């Protein structure tokens, strides 16, 4: 990848001989990134990858910004198809930021136009849902429900359930704290995942998981305690804090922990966080005291164990996804300090 800066914050496809995703091992006390493929930039150059989701064991879809696009790849790293049409018209996108695959359809969120565009597995547009009022950090699709994790520093609910048959929001859950509204400035803040009966979510400022049953709309929350997971209270609105005291707000973000994902596993679930501190000197970010920390939970959400690993430069801008109860990421690597490229990895514990 040429001239791309490392940013911290912010199918029925015809192919032969594609590699299958490996059968990754369960937790064994170590974390390893296993290379699956390097993403080709032929025929199209890639912008910054913002999201990844798997179509099947041999294909996945990504969204990018700068420049904006949506691509289908195979697990050999070949760029199979560009599916997004850039524009403001029907079924067009200006800034695709989140992609999800559900029931043989590809769902793409456009952050600029606040709309959801649906494609078939070959990348042909099917439908769109428009006129949303809030930006999203993430989403999941469950049957006819568009499950939205609110972003953008908005007050009010964290989760909104939009019924795509009725074209209306039917349920809302959670309440954004001052701390969440500030930490949500970070890309990848918070976590959301599907279960057999509904949805899991975790606010970025809380070491907890809330489960929502999408049949009877009940909810329950499990809270966890760890002295290393630290989020200090702030006594003013998070967005106002950032706007009025940007330097202090950034220092707060650098020094506080954050939840960055929930993932299903063979034995239960994995809650991903960041702990420790970043420091900045002359616009250079020092991450030597910042760590990724993974909490391993059984199927009843009981905390079993945890694993803390030092941040690595190539994983500062990683995008994570799951397939078949295993975790994968796309990371940005530097080749000979000259050229950046993206690589798909399988993660083993």
Describe what this molecule looks like in 3D.
The chain has 349 residues and is mostly beta strands. The chain is 7% helix and 49% strand. Strands 1-24-23-22 form a 4-stranded antiparallel beta sheet, with no helix packed on it. Strands 2-3-4-5 form a 4-stranded antiparallel beta sheet, with no helix packed on it. Strands 6-7-8-9 form a 4-stranded antiparallel beta sheet, with no helix packed on it. Helix 2 (238-244) crosses helix 3. The longest helix has 10 residues, at 246-255. The chain is globular, with a radius of gyration of 19 Å.
Offer a quick outline of the entry.
The protein is mostly beta strands. The chain has helices spanning 178-183, 238-244, 246-255, and strands at residues 32-38, 48-56, 59-65, 69-74, 79-82, 96-102, 105-110, 115-120, 125-129, 136-142, 145-150, 159-163, 168-173, 191-194, 198-202, 208-213, 219-223, 258-265, 268-281, 284-298, 303-310, 319-323, 326-335, 339-348.
């Amino acid at each position: 990848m040429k001239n791309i800066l490392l940013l911290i914050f912010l199918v029925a496809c015809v192919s032969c001989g594609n590699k299958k995703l490996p059968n990754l091992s369960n937790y064994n006390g170590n974390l390893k990134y296993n290379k699956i493929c390097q993403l080709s930039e032929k025929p199209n150059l890639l912008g910054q990858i913002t999201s990844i989701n798997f179509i099947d064991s041999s294909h996945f879809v990504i969204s990018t910004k700068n420049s904006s696009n949506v691509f289908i790849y195979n697990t050999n790293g070949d760029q199979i198809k560009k599916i997004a049409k850039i524009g403001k018209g029907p079924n067009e996108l200006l800034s695709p930021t989140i992609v999800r695959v559900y029931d043989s359809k590809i769902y793409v969120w456009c952050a600029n136009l606040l709309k959801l565009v649906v494609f078939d597995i070959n990348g042909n547009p099917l439908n769109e849902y428009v006129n949303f009022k809030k930006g999203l950090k993430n989403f999941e699709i469950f049957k006819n429900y568009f499950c939205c994790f609110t972003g953008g520093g908005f007050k009010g609910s964290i989760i909104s359930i939009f019924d795509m048959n009725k074209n209306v929001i039917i349920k809302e859950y959670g309440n954004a704290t001052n701390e969440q509204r500030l930490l949500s400035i970070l890309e990848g803040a918070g976590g959301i995942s599907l279960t057999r009966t509904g949805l899991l979510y975790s606010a970025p400022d809380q070491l907890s998981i809330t489960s929502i049953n999408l049949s009877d709309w009940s909810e329950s929350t499990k809270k966890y305690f760890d002295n290393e997971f630290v989020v200090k209270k702030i006594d003013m609105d998070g967005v106002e804090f950032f706007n009025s005291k940007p330097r202090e707000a950034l220092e707060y973000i650098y020094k506080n922990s954050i939840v960055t994902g929930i993932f299903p596993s063979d034995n239960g679930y994995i809650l991903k966080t960041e702990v420790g501190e970043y420091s900045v000197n002359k616009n250079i970010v020092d991450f030597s005291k910042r760590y990724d920390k993974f909490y391993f939970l059984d199927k009843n959400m009981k905390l079993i164990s945890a694993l803390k690993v030092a941040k690595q430069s190539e994983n500062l801008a990683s995008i994570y996804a799951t397939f078949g109860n295993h975790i994968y990421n796309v990371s940005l690597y530097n080749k000979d300090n000259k050229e950046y490229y993206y690589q798909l990895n399988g993660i083993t514990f």
